[in-house]
Prior knowledge:
There is one protein chain. This protein folds into three domains: 284 residues, no CATH class; 96 residues, no CATH class; 92 residues, no CATH class. It is built from 18 helices and 17 strands.
Amino acid sequence: xxxxxxxxxxxxxxxATHAVTVVAVDTPENTVKRINANYxxxxxxxxxxxxxxxxxxxxxxxxxxxxxxxxxxxxDYSPYALKTGASSFSWIRADLSTNRLIRPAGFILRTPEDxxxxxxxxxETGFMCIYSFDGFTGPERQWHGxxxxxAALPAxxxxxxxxxxxxxxxxxxxxxxxxxxxxxxxxxRRRWSGTRPTLLNPMNRIxxxxxxxxxxxxxxxxAMIKVHQAPGTRFTDTFARKELINEFLLRNDQTGTPKxxxxxxxxxxxxxxxxxxxxxxxxxxxxxxxxxxxxGLKPAQAFQRKLYAQGYAVPVLRMDFTRPPSxxxxxxxxxxxxxxxxxxxxxxxGQENRDYIDSxxxxxxxxxxxxxxEWTLNVVLKPGVKIDASNVQAAYEALESRYGDGxxxxxxxxxxxxxxxxxxxxxxxxxxxxxxxxxPFRPTVNPDEMKRSGCNPVRKLIEAALWSEQTDSKSGTTxxxxxxxxxxxxxxxxxxxxxxxxxxxxxxxxxxxxxxxGSVKLQLACLRKNYSQKKDxxxxPFRKATSPAQTEAALxxx
Length: 558
C-alpha cells in the first residue's frame, strides 16, 4: 500500500498545518484496468484463504452502490438502511444485461481478492444475499432484508446455507431460496413466472414475492444470473427486466457512532463512478421527496472530495454502458478534483494557503444574453487580497472547494471548466476588481473570445422549452410532452451540447421521468439529425428509445 502525505489544506479550506496522511492503494490507471478486468471476468471459482468457496462477488464483477449527494457522506447508512439493518448494492458483470442503475453516481467496493493482492484491508464478512431483481427490501424482510416479505423466518433458516468447508462469512450469509428449496433458475421460473399484481393484491409482483439467493453459494449466483437474463415472466413486470438491477445486500457495521456512520466501509472503496449517459434517479423506499434527474459528475466529484478528507485517494471513473464491455469503465483526468497517485492538481502546489474569499452569495437574476433568469455567484474578495497569475489557481481552488458542491454550481456548469475560465479571465483583464459575478451556465471558449465578451460568453441554444400534458388517443393515459424551440445556433450545435443545455433547463422538472435511461437524449439527437429546420421539436420522456437506429426507424417516436 502506498501512503502519501499530501497537503490538502487548499482543497478543504483547512489550515496548512493540518496535513493529512492520504492512503492511495493503487494508481488510477491500474484501478480502472482492474475494474474492467473484473467486469469481464466470467468466473465462478472464488475462494477465500481457507480454501472455502465464496460468492462470485469475491473475485469477479463489480459491486456498486449508487447514491445521492447531500449534507452527508455517500458511505453512510440511509435512514431506511438503518431500519433494514443492511444497505443495498448492485452487482454488475459482462454476462448481465444491466445498463440502468438507480442513480447516476455512486461508489465501487474493491473485490476481496484484489484487496488481498494489493495488501489492502480485505472485507471478508457482511455479505448477506442477492435478489435477481430489485427486492423491495426493508424492515418487512427479516434477516437484514433477505427474508420473505412480511413473514417470519423459517425455523433453523440457515440449515441449508453452509458451504463446504464453511467460509469466513458463513454466520451471516443466507437466502430465502434456500428455505424454499429453490435451487436453480428453472425452479425459480416454475414458482414465479406467472406472478402478476391485481387490483385486490397489488403486492403480488415479482419484486415483492421473489426469494433471495445466498451470497456465498456459487450455485445460487449462477441461478441468479440465469433468472435475471431470462425470468420467463408471462406478464409484464415493471422490475423483472434484464436491463435493470439486481439487489445485493451488505449488513451495516454495528459499531459506528452514530448508527448512521458507515465509515467502517471507507478502506474498501475502490473508486467513485458516474454514468455520462444517464440522469435517471429512481424513487426508492424511504425517500422523503420526489426524485429529480441529476447529472452524475458533480456528485461523484463531491464524493471524491469527502473521501479524500477522510484520508483516502481513489479515482472518479466513467461507467458507460454504450461502450464495449472491455471499455465499460474509463479514467478521465479532467473528472478528478483531488490529487491522485502523488500528482498534485493545479493550484495545490504547496504555496501558502490564504483565505481569499470574504463572501459568496447566489443570486437569481435576468441574463440578457439568455433571455431568462440564471444563477449568479456574487464573490467578494477579502480586503487587501490581490489575485494575479501567481495565485489565481489557488484562489479558484479555494472558491470551488467551498462552493463547488452547491446545487446551483453543480446543476448548471454543463461546460467543464466554465467557472475556472471566468475567474482566469477576470484576473487577467480586470485585475483591480474586488468583486466577481460568475455564472456556471456560460460556455468555455478561448481566451480571446472570453476577453471580447467581457468574460461573459453566451451560447444560447434553446429559445424555449415548455411542458404540456397530453392524452394518448389509444390508451387514454396522460403523459407529459416537452416542446423545444432551438435557436439557429442550437440547430447547428452538437447533440451532446444541445442535450446538456436542455437538461440544465428542464431535466430536474418532475415531468422528466424517462421510460428508459437516455430516451430524451436519443429523441433529441434524432430530431436534430432528421428534422433540424422544423420550427419546434416535441419530446416525450416516457418513450422507450434504446438506440439511434430504433429511434430513427420510429420517426423519433419509439
